[in-house]
Design goal:
Shape: elongated
CATH topology of the largest domain: Recoverin, domain 1
Number of strands: 0
Number of domains: 2
Strand content: under 5%
Radius of gyration: 22 Å
Distance between the termini: 56 Å
CATH class of the largest domain: Mainly Alpha
Number of helices: 5
Structural class: mainly alpha
Largest sheet: none
Helix content: over 70%
CATH superfamily of the largest domain: EF-hand
């Protein structure tokens, strides 16, 4: 819903199916949602030329470009400073995401060990 509203506010409204295909194109963890990292991946793929020209993601990426002749140098400076700040935040978010993933892996491993220990105890009492 947030993506839908954002696209509407940017002047590039999308259908429900269009939004789903946009999410699917960058959804690395297959949860059907866009994380901040996946959102940034849109712009990375656009810069690398990996997006289809007629896709909603390409429309979103193009909406984030700036025309210096139209905006002037000051507008471009503000635009790129905001981009740099967003990239700096992205690296912090990536570190947080990695930490969360590591915590989940550790919790899953602990759960597996507890289950294995329980099975051993169950087998000992069953015989």
């Amino acid at each position: 819903m947030e993506l839908k509203l954002m696209m509407e506010k940017l002047g590039a409204p999308q259908t429900h199916l269009g939004l789903k295909s946009m999410i699917k194109e960058v959804d690395e963890d297959f949860d059907g949602k866009l994380s901040f990292r996946e959102f940034l991946l849109i712009f990375h793929k656009a810069a690398a030329g990996e997006l289809q020209e007629d896709s909603g993601l390409m429309a979103l990426a193009k909406l984030s470009e700036i025309d210096v002749a139209l905006e002037g140098v000051k507008g471009a400076k503000d635009f790129f400073e905001a981009k740099v700040q967003a990239l700096n935040c992205a690296s912090k978010f990536e570190a947080e995401l990695k930490a969360e993933q590591d915590e989940r892996k550790q919790a899953e491993e602990k759960r597996r060990l507890r289950q294995a220990a329980f099975r051993e105890l169950k087998a000992a009492f069953s015989t």
